Amino acid sequence: VTVNDPITFATQDYDYIVVGTGCAGMAIASLLSENFRVGVIEAGPVVTDVDIVNVPGMIGRDEVGTYDWNYTTVANNDTGVPSVTWPRGKILGGSSALNYLVWNAGAEIEYDILEQLGNPDWNWDTLSYYRKQAETWTEPSAYDEQGYNVYPSSQYAGHSGPTQVSFGRYVSAIARVWVDAMEYLGINRNNNPLSGTSIGVTSASSNIRPNNQTRHYSAPAYYFPVENRETLTVIPESLVTRVNFQSQGDELIATGVTFMNNGQVYNVTVSKDVIISAGSVNTAQILELSGIGEKDVLDAYGIEQLLDLPVGENLQDHCFLYKAEGIVTLDDTLGNATFSDEQLALWQEADPNNPSIFAMAVPSVAYLNLEQLLGTDAAQQSISQAEQFVASQNNSVYYDVWQAQLQLLRDSSVAQAELLFIEGTSYDYVNHQARVRLLATLQHSWSRGYVHIQSNDPTVYPLIQPNYLASPLDVQALAAGVEYTLAIGKTVHGCLRRSSLMPNAPGNTSQYSDILALDQNLTTTIDDWIHSYIGTEYHPIGTASMLPQGKGGVVDPRLIVYGTKNLRVVDMSILPIHIGAHPMATIVGIAQHAAAFIKEGY
Ligand SMILES: Cc1cc2nc3c(=O)[nH]c(=O)nc-3n(C[C@H](O)[C@H](O)[C@H](O)COP(=O)(O)OP(=O)(O)OC[C@H]3O[C@@H](n4cnc5c(N)ncnc54)[C@H](O)[C@@H]3O)c2cc1C
Q: Which Pfam families does the record associate with it (predicted)?
């Protein structure tokens, strides 16, 4: 039930309060409300009928828009990396309402390593089981299999979960040649990227509802179908500003939260747990505003420290670089209103035999291990450098995490880079050219950043310093990824060849002219170029890490904040080390897992 009156919301009785309705929050709130009374507080609005949310091919259109928190990072003078935008969804559904819909998973070892780091029952078997509980996967038709050139087996997917996952019905010109082109470059085809084997080129599935080709994000998956459930009460457009506690012996008990609605402040109480699912940026902010964090951070803003935990540290992201070309793509819907209107009308018809160009998201992805990315010799050198770095960290609280990352670097089943095409997000309005983006991204960054409050005013945004490229290992890997994208642009495969970097490609008056210069003068400019054009792949993790206490941990394996009895964090911020995959499917699986053990505990 959605309520807009804060007094009505605040005076009801709740067993659980969930803060945030993103990939994790909406799922856990909905699942717990099957047995308990759950109150949910979301900063953004409830939206049902908005094309930029519902139409898969409109990806990217709400970045720096109405449903985005519109965060930016701070520039880093040491590395020379400028401030970049950091989109995060502020809407019922959170970032799942504006993300790029790639639904995939990492390698088995990337999940097993969570258990090795001290978290019993956090491994591939458990997390893939719960991811399957979250999804209803529809296999592509024989015709689409040929179009996408992948032949997935349904045995690795779930078949009765709330989130509809399928292959977009529109197979673009690029998607048709992608697998072929990468195989030509020596990368193996991966027909089953949900199987625990992530390396290789594939056409990824997306959370697109197959019958009408709409985005099936966390609100339609977990909320709209049970909107009338009396035990599930959601208040939108309300900002949680802190968690309230009382002490019991050495432990803190969360009694509820404070939130702001329309400029007024309200308190709401809880009988069991407060669950923070505000995402990697806002979860850290809420914990710090509540007195949980590092003393110097809290002291600076006059906040009494209740618990000393490394909140906001260990921030890791997948960062990316891209180049752009002139080629007919989904970008044409941005530049040609008539074409866009026609295609939108076609999308509304949802005729499976005549798919609209809007019935697509981002299928064309490939994951490379270290050797594929760098070549054998450079890979060995990189491992030696990483070994030296890790040895130098033996006094760090994160030493075990660094060692785990070294293990992942050495393992050929683990992706260090992702290469992917994105259409529909980079129309060149100056030269009136449709483009396509080809991205090189880093999956296991050696750089670590942080998110911290910079005021005790909850409406002041926290400071985000991702520290991209602080490690030379990251510079080397990303530079190799960029070189790979240039090779892809020059393959002989149909439209990939048309999209190769030619001197007459568009961009003289935009930032892309520099990218063209890069292609012509690769060796001299690549390092400078990657420092100037780096961006986020939107996957921040780690700011409330699930690790042992004293070893970087903020939450324990039951996702309870150390030193509290009943404050949990269930979202992307609990992952202590990154996975080589887009994280949404994993985080929804984490929420399913958490809902199961929380229900068991009571
Ligand atoms: C542009 C973009 C593209 C992406 N593409 C992909 C992709 O293709 N595939 C993929 O797997 N992943 C993708 N991601 C990442 C993925 O969406 C996130 O990792 C995932 O949504 C994180 O889930 P979460 O529950 O931790 O946080 P979120 O989904 O961000 O949800 C957090 C929620 O908490 C709310 N909130 C925050 N603070 C407060 C507060 N103080 N009070 C009340 N409510 C609050 C927010 O408004 C939001 O609704 C993308 C992300 C973005 C932004």
A: GMC_oxred_C (PF05199), GMC_oxred_N (PF00732)
| Nearest Cα residue to 477 out of 538, 423, 415 | 415
**Ligand 1: which of 584, 592, 593 to mutate, judged by most atoms within 8 Å of the beta carbon?**
584
Taking the centre of ligand 1 as the mean of its atom positions, its distance from the CA of residue 88, in whole angstroms, is: 5
Instruction: Kindly give, in sequence order, each residue whose CB lies less than 8 Å from that of residue 380, ignoring residues fewer than 6 positions away.
Output: none
Cβ(554)–Cβ(310) under 8 Å?
yes
345 to each of 173, 208, 215, 263, 339, how far by Cα in Å? Answer: 21, 18, 17, 41, 10
Tell me if residue 493 is catalytic. Answer: no
- Rounded distance from Cα 525 to ligand 1 centre (Å): 34
* Cα separation values, 543 from 78, 116, 315, 553, 572, Å: 22, 19, 5, 10, 9
Nearest Cα to Cα of residue 535 among 432, 397, 410, 441: 441
Ligand 1 centroid–CA 418 distance in Å is: 20
Residue 24 Cβ contacting ligand 1 at under 6 Å: yes
Q: Is the CB of 571 under 6 A from ligand 1?
A: yes
Residues ≥6 apart with Cβ < 8 Å to 129: none
| CA atoms in the 13 A half-sphere facing the CB of 374 | 24
Q: What is the pTM of this model?
A: 0.96
Q: What are phi and psi of 264, to 5 degrees?
A: -100, 155
| Residue 212 reports pLDDT greater than 90 | yes
Q: Out of 71, 99, 290, give the residue to mutate to test ligand 1, the one with the largest number of ligand atoms within 8 Å of its CB.
A: 99
In sequence order, the 6+-apart residues with CB closer than 8 A to the CB of 30 are: 162, 222, 223, 226, 232
pLDDT of residue 568: 98
Active site residue 539: yes
Tens digits of residue pLDDT in 530-559:
888 889 999 999 999 999 999 999 999 999
CA distances from 537 to 134, 467, 472, 545 (A): 23, 14, 19, 20
Please state the atom number of ligand 1 nearest to the C-alpha of residue 282. Answer: 38
CA of 93 to the centre of ligand 1 (A): 8
Q: How many residues does the chain have?
A: 602
Neighbours of 412 (CB within 10 A): 11
The minimum-distance atom of ligand 1 relative to the CA of 362 is: 8
Mutate to test the pocket of ligand 1, among 286, 538, 546 (most ligand atoms within 8 A of CB): 538
Give the model's pLDDT for residue 10. Answer: 98
Residue nearest to atom 3 of ligand 1 (CA): 99
